[in-house]
Design brief:
By secondary structure, this protein is mostly helical. 58% of the residues lie in helices and 1% in strands.
Length: 784
C-alpha cells in the first residue's frame, strides 16, 4: 500500500493542495522557480525533509488513515513522486566524485566511434517512413559494454594513458553527449538535400559541410545564455534525460539495489531485442493491428482514412494498436509527465474529428480535386503531383507568367488543417510561456549577468556543480561570432546566393527568442513543437517569391534554435552526472563537427540511390521522403507563393490567421486560473500541446497512440500512485531498456535486412505480411 507523508513542505512558498494527482506540469515550479503560477498539483511530502526531521516523520497509508513511524534509514520508505523536485531528489542520485577523469583516451576513442555510428544511423532514419530517431540510450549501452572491456586492460606504467582506471560515470556520460550530439539530425543537411532533389542545385561539398557546422554552432552558442534558466534550476527537469541518468547511475553506482536494477534492465533489453524482429520484419501487421480494418477487408475508403495506420500516409489510426516499440516510444509513455500526455491525448481525439470532418466537407478542395487523404506533397487541381520547376525561373524565383498559366498548387485537406493547428500552437506557445514563466525569463537574464556561482538556486545537483569551472561567456560569444561569419560567407559563396547576410543575422535573433520559448516548454514538460510556421510567414514577406531564401530563413530562425534544445538537454544530463562544464563543452563541440561531415556523406549516398522513391508522395515501406517533401512544400507555398496563397481572400488565408488566434487562446485559461486558483482544470490544460496534437496525425504511420495511451496511464498514473517503490526503482530504467534494445536490433535489421548496406531481404508474404502491391500492412487498403 503506498504511503504518503504528511507535514510541512520544504518550500513554504508552495501551496499544498489535497488532490492526489501526480503530474509534473509546465506550470508547477518547485523550489528555486520564479513562476507566478500557483503550483496546483505539486503535492509535497516529508520524504524531502532534512535528516533530523525525517526521523520523526509520520506517514499516512493513502486511503486508510493509519499512521506508522518511519526512520531516515529505512530504504523502502514509500514516496509518491509528484513533481520535478521529488524526481531530482529521489530518483536522480546527487553523489559526485570530483577526482574521476573525464577526457580520457577511452572518451575520445569510444565517443568518436559511437558518434560516427549514431550519425550514420540518424541519417538513415531520416529517410525512413517510421520517423524513428537515434536514442542516446543506444549509444549509452554500447559505450558501457566497450568501456568496461577497455578497463580490463593493464592500468600501470604507460598503459595508464590507455586505461586510467575503472570506467566511470563521467567518462560514460561525456561519451553519450559527444555521440548524441553527432546523432542529432542536422536539418541543414536536409535543406541541402532539397536543393538537390527539387531545384537541381548541387551545393559544393566543402561549402555544404561548413554551412552545416556553422548553423549547428549558432544553436550551440545560444546555450551559454540560457543555462541559468534552463539547466541549473530544479524545475528545468528535462524529462527525456531521466531514463538516461537513471541507467547511468544504475550501471556505475554499486549496491545490491543497483545489481537488481541492472538484472531487470538486461532482462527487459533482451526481451525487446528478440521481440522487435517479429513486428519489424516477420509479422508487420503487428505495427498497426486494427480490428476495424480486418473486418472491412479494404473495401471502404472511409475505413482506411480513419482507421488505417500501417503504411506511410495511409490513415489516422483510430483504434489501431501497435505492438512495435519503435513506434510506441514516439508517444514517450514512460517518461512524459501525465499532464503532457493527457493534453496530447485530448489533441489527438480532436484531430480524429477535425481531419475526417474537414476532408469530407471538402475544406480547401482536397476531396473534390481527387487529392490523397494524407500527403505533405503539393498537387495540381487534377490530383497529379505539382511540378514546381514550371513556375520558377533559372535562379529559382517565381515566374508569375508561368504560374498563372500552370495554376496554383493544392495542399491535401489534412495537411492544410495540420498547418493551421500547428500555427495555433505556435501562437499559443509564445503567450503561454510569457504568462506562466515571465519571472523565470527575467531571472535567467539576471543569472547571465551574475555568472554561475552567484546564482541563488537551491538544487542538489547544481550545488555540486559549483565546484567546477564553467565555460566563460566569452567562449560562447566567440563561437557565435565565428559561426555567424561563416554563415554569412557561405550564403554568398555557396553557389546559390541563398540569403543576404543581414537576413542571416535577423533570423538568428528571431531564433534566439524562440529558443527561450521552446526551451521552457521542453525543459519542464518534455514536449517540444515547431515554430517554423512563424518563421516562414515572416520570411515570405521579407523575401517574397524566393523559396530557397525561405528555407534558409527557417534554417537560421528555427533549426538553429532546435539544435539549441538538443544541446541544452545534453548539458542537463551533464549536470545530473556531475560532468565538468568544460568537458561537456568539448564533447558537444566535437560531436557537432564529426556529425555534420558524416551526415552529409550519407545523404549523398541515400539520395543518389533512392531519389525517385524519395520524391514519390507516398514512398515505400523501406524509404520515404515525407520529411523533405513537407519542408519543400512549405518553401514553395510560403516562399514563392506567399502572397498568392496566404493573404486575405486567398485560398489558404486561414493558415497564417491561426497564428493570431493562437496568441489569444491561452489568455482566457490564465485569467480563469488567476480568478479561481484552486480549480485545477484551468492550469492543467496546456493549450500549446493540445493545439499542436490537433494536427499531428496526417504524417507517416499512426499505430502508436492507443498503446501509448494504455502504457502512459499505467506508468505515470497507476504506477506512480499505487506502486511508488516500483516506479522510483524501475520505471525510467524500463524506458531505457526498451528504447536501448529496440535501437540495437533496429540498427542490425536496417543493415542486415532492410537494405541500408545491400539488397533488402523480404520476408515471405503471408496473412501477417501482405504483399505491398496488393494490401497495406494492416490489410486496410487495397492497392489499385
Amino acid at each position: 500500500m503506498p504511503l504518503r507523508a504528511r507535514g510541512n513542505t520544504t518550500n513554504p512558498s508552495t501551496t499544498s493542495v489535497s488532490d492526489e494527482s501526480n503530474e509534473i506540469v509546465l506550470s508547477s515550479l518547485p523550489k528555486g522557480g520564479q513562476s507566478d503560477e500557483v503550483p496546483y498539483d505539486d503535492v509535497k511530502h516529508d520524504g524531502a525533509l532534512d535528516a533530523d526531521s525525517k526521523a520523526d516523520t509520520k506517514v499516512q497509508v493513502a486511503g486508510v488513515g493509519e499512521e506508522v513511524g518511519r526512520t531516515e534509514y529505512e530504504e523502502e520508505f514509500d514516496i509518491i513522486v509528484q513533481g520535478a523536485e521529488e524526481i531530482a531528489k529521489e530518483i536522480v542520485d546527487p553523489r559526485d566524485d570530483p577526482d574521476a577523469p573525464v577526457l580520457t583516451f577511452r572518451f575520445w576513442f569510444l565517443g568518436c566511434g559511437l558518434a560516427a555510428f549514431g550519425a550514420v544511423l540518424s541519417e538513415i532514419y531520416y529517410w525512413k517512413p517510421q520517423g524513428a530517431t537515434v536514442s542516446a540510450l543506444f549509444q549509452l549501452i554500447i559505450a558501457y559494454v566497450l568501456g568496461n572491456l577497455m578497463a580490463l586492460t593493464p592500468s600501470h606504467g604507460w598503459w595508464r594513458w590507455f586505461n586510467p582506471g575503472p570506467f566511470n560515470i563521467k567518462e560514460h556520460t561525456a561519451i553519450v553527449i559527444l555521440s548524441s550530439t553527432a546523432s542529432s539530425s542536422a536539418e541543414a543537411v536536409s535543406i541541402i538535400a532539397i536543393l538537390n532533389m527539387y531545384y537541381n542545385l548541387n551545393l559544393n561539398a566543402g561549402i555544404g559541410i561548413i554551412q552545416v557546422w556553422a548553423t549547428q554552432c549558432i544553436g550551440y552558442a545560444i546555450c551559454g545564455a540560457l543555462q541559468s534558466s534552463l539547466i541549473y534550476p530544479t524545475y528545468a527537469l528535462w524529462p527525456a534525460q531521466i531514463p538516461n541518468i537513471t541507467l547511468l547511475q544504475s550501471m556505475h553506482f554499486g549496491g545490491l539495489l543497483n545489481k537488481k536494477k541492472m538484472r531487470f534492465f538486461w532482462i527487459a533489453f533482451t526481451a525487446i531485442f528478440l521481440w522487435e524482429i517479429v513486428p519489424s520484419w516477420m509479422f508487420p501487421l503487428l505495427t498497426a493491428f486494427s480490428i476495424v480494418c480486418l473486418a472491412d477487408k479494404g473495401k471502404h475508403d472511409f475505413v482506411r482514412n480513419l482507421f488505417g495506420a500501417g503504411s506511410s500516409n495511409e490513415g489516422l489510426g483510430l483504434f489501431s494498436f501497435a505492438f512495435d516499440w519503435i513506434l510506441i516510444t514516439q508517444a514517450f509513455p514512460l517518461f512524459w509527465p501525465l499532464q503532457t500526455q493527457v493534453c496530447s491525448w485530448i489533441g489527438i481525439l480532436i484531430c480524429y474529428v477535425l481531419m475526417t470532418g474537414a476532408y469530407y466537407t471538402d475544406v480547401g478542395g482536397g476531396k473534390s480535386h481527387g487529392l490523397p487523404f494524407m500527403s505533405t506533397s503539393l498537387f495540381t487541381g487534377n490530383g497529379s503531383s505539382y511540378d514546381q520547376s514550371l513556375i520558377l525561373t533559372p535562379s529559382n524565383d517565381l515566374n508569375m507568367t508561368a504560374y498563372e498559366a500552370y495554376g496554383r498548387p493544392y495542399y491535401t485537406t489534412t495537411y492544410s488543417m495540420s498547418l493551421t493547428t500547428h500555427n495555433l500552437s505556435c501562437g499559443a506557445l509564445v503567450t503561454h510561456v510569457i504568462l506562466w514563466h515571465y519571472k523565470d525569463i527575467i531571472a535567467g537574464w539576471h543569472g547571465l549577468r551574475l555568472g554561475n556561482k552567484s546564482l541563488d538556486i537551491q538544487d542538489p545537483h547544481y550545488e555540486k556543480m559549483k565546484s567546477y569551472k564553467v565555460v566563460p561567456q566569452w567562449a560562447y560569444l566567440l563561437v557565435f561570432v565565428a559561426s555567424m561569419a561563416i554563415s554569412m560567407g557561405t550564403a554568398y559563396f555557396g553557389g546559390t546566393n541563398t540569403i543576404p547576410a543581414w537576413s542571416v543575422l535577423l533570423f538568428t535573433v528571431i531564433g534566439y527568442f524562440f529558443a527561450i520559448v521552446l526551451g521552457f516548454l521542453k525543459a519542464v514538460t518534455g514536449f517540444d513543437t515547431s515554430v517554423n510556421g512563424i518563421i516562414q510567414i515572416i520570411a515570405a514577406f521579407i523575401h517574397p517569391g524566393k523559396p530557397v531564401a525561405n528555407m534558409y530563413a527557417s534554417m537560421y530562425g528555427y533549426y538553429a534554435p532546435l539544435q539549441t534544445l538538443a544541446m541544452l538537454g545534453d548539458q542537463k544530463l551533464g549536470q545530473y552526472a556531475k560532468v565538468p562544464p568544460i568537458a561537456t563543452f568539448v564533447a558537444q563541440f566535437a560531436g557537432t563537427i564529426l556529425g555534420a561531415v558524416l551526415q552529409y556523406v550519407l545523404y549523398v549516398s541515400i539520395v543518389g540511390q533512392h531519389k525517385e522513391v524519395l520524391l514519390d508522395p507516398i514512398g515505400t515501406r523501406e524509404w520515404a521522403g515525407w520529411n523533405v517533401q513537407g519542408t519543400n512544400s512549405k518553401a514553395i507555398t510560403f516562399g514563392a507563393l506567399g502572397r498568392e496563397m496566404y493573404l486575405s481572400g486567398k485560398p489558404y488565408w486561414f493558415i497564417p490567421a491561426a497564428l493570431g488566434i493562437g496568441l489569444a487562446l491561452p489568455i482566457p485559461f490564465w485569467l480563469m486560473h488567476k480568478r479561481y486558483p484552486h480549480q485545477r482544470i484551468w492550469s492543467y490544460l496546456n493549450i500549446p500541446i493540445i493545439t499542436n496534437y490537433m494536427g499531428w496525425l496526417p504524417y507517416s504511420v499512426n499505430g502508436n497512440w492507443w498503446p501509448g495511451f494504455v502504457i502512459g496511464l499505467m506508468s505515470q498514473w497507476w504506477a506512480r500512485k499505487y506502486r511508488p517503490r516500483w516506479f522510483i526503482k524501475y520505471n525510467y530504467l524500463l524506458s531505457a531498456a526498451l528504447d536501448g534494445g529496440t535501437q540495437v536490433i533496429y540498427f542490425i535489421l536496417n543493415f542486415a535486412i532492410f537494405g541500408a548496406a545491400s539488397a533488402a531481404v523480404t520476408f515471405p508474404y503471408w496473412w501477417g505480411n501482405p504483399d505491398p502491391d496488393v494490401l497495406s500492412v494492416d490489410r486496410c487498403k487495397v492497392v489499385p
